[in-house]
Amino acid sequence: MAISKFWRAQRGKEEERISQQPVERARETWSARDVNAFDGPHLAIQTAYEQRYLRRSIEYIQRRLVHPRTRPALDIGAGYGRLSMVLAEYFSKSIAVEREQGLIDEAQKFWVDDVEFISVETLARLNYLDGTFALAFTCTVLSHMLDYDVPIVLREACRVARGGFVLLVEITEPGYLHGTYGVKKFTKGRTIDEYAAMMHPFELDFVRPRFMGGASGPVLGSFVMFRDPTLPPGSASINGLEWDLPRAPA
After folding, report:
1. Average of pLDDT values for 214-238?
2. Which residue has the higher pLDDT, 173 or 247?
3. If 0-12 CB within 10 Å is exposed, 13-18 middle and 19+ buried, where does residue 214 land?
4. Which residues pair with 137 in a beta bridge?
5. What's the rounded Cα separation, in Å, for the pair 83 and 176?
C-alpha cells in the first residue's frame, strides 16, 4: 500500500527533527533479551497473565466471527513467539511475522507445528491479501516505533484483517516515555484515543488493563480491541465480564 503524501511529509519532518539530536540513530537489532523487560519468574508470571487475557479476548470476539477456524491469525512483530502459540488454539493457523532473523531462529528451536514464522523486512508492507486474517495482533511493538510509522503499520493491520478484528496490547498511559524518543530502544506510550483515531474505519470494541502480575499490580498498558465496522458490537459490556483480575489482600 502506497504511503500517502501527508505521511511522507510527516516522515520528513520527523527525520529532520530526530537527526538534529546528538545521538546516532543506527538501525537497532533486537535480541531475545530486548524483547522483555523482565526475566526469570517475573517473565513467567507476566506471560501466564498475558496468555490468559489473550484467550479471554479471543473468546469474546469469536462468537461474532463466521467460521473463525477457517481463517488464520497474524502476530505482527512476534519476536520469538511468546504469545503467538495462543492464536493457534483458536484459528486455522498462527502466522508470526518478524523483522529480526535472530528472534525467528530462537523461536524455531521451540515451536514446531503451532506457529509459522515469516521473516519480513518491514511491518509497514505485509504480503497478504485484504481480509486474509480473522485477527491481527501486536503486543508492545508500536510503543517502540516512531510516530509516523505507527499509522502505516496499523493501516496494514486493518487491511489484512478486513472483516475481522485487530487487537493491540500496548502501553497507553498518557505521556509515558522510557529512554529518549527516536534514539536507541525507546518506549513511548500512546493513549487509547490516539490509537482509535489511527484505526479508522475500525471501531473500538473493548479495552481492559494489561495486568502483569502481583496482588495489586503492576498494570502497564491495555488490551485494546478494534472491530471491522461490518461486525456487530459485543452482546455485553466488556467491563461486566469476569477477567480474573487478582484482588489486593485485605
Report:
1. 78
2. 173
3. middle
4. 75, 167
5. 24
**46: helix, coil or strand?**
helix
Which amino acid, 139?
A: C
Tell me the sheet residues that pair with 166.
136, 226
The dihedrals phi and psi of 147, each to the nearest 5 degrees, come to -55, -40
Task: With cut-offs at 50, 70 and 90, classify the pLDDT of residue 106.
Answer: confident
Cα 219 from Cα 171, distance rounded (Å): 10
Cβ 25 vs Cβ 182: under 8 Å? yes
Place of cell 531475545: 32
Among 18-27, 133-142, 238-247, the least confident range: 18-27
Between 31-45, 82-96, 169-183, the lowest mean confidence (pLDDT) is in 31-45
> How far is Cα of residue 240 from the mean position of the Cα atoms in its chain?
24
pLDDT value at residue 19: 42
Among the ranges given (71-80, 100-109, 157-166), the one the predictor scored with the smallest mean pLDDT: 100-109
Contact between 96 and 107 under an 8 Å Cβ cutoff? The reply is: yes
Q: Are 103 and 80 in contact (CB under 8 A)?
A: yes
- Computed from CA positions of residues 217, 135, 200, 78, in that sequence, does the dihedral angle turn out positive or negative? positive
| Main-chain dihedrals φ then ψ at residue 226, nearest 5 degrees | -120, 145
Other Cβ atoms less than 10 A from the Cβ of 20: the count is 7
Amino acid, single-letter form, for residue 117:
F
Q: From residue 132, give the alpha-carbon distance in Å to each of 72, 84, 242.
A: 7, 17, 31
